[in-house]
Amino acid sequence: MSKTLKANKVRKALVKKGFKEKKSRHLKFTLHINGKKQRIWTVMSHSRKDIPIWLQKRMMKQLKFEAEEDFYNFVECPMSYEDYVSYLEKRGYL
Predict the structure, then answer these.
(1) What domain count does the chain have?
(2) Domain range for residue 55?
(3) Most buried among 21, 48, 50, 71, by the most CB within 10 A?
(4) pTM flag (> 0.70)
């Protein structure tokens, strides 16, 4: 992982792809499909502007991505909500 990602861009991508944001000590995002909460989630800090590489790797695993390219496509938006749900279904996460 070598791209710098802005926290706000990642947050917007998560919300656009069906994640609900819960504010507490950190920002927790949980995937919802047809109104049902799923077991796929990730956490971000309130204060960060850029997401460090180590946190990108952790988020990639939490969001069930096997390849960095897929994670970046998720954030950069070529991957739609429907594409992400299909990706998870094909890999047996849903």
Answers:
(1) 1
(2) 5-90
(3) 71
(4) yes
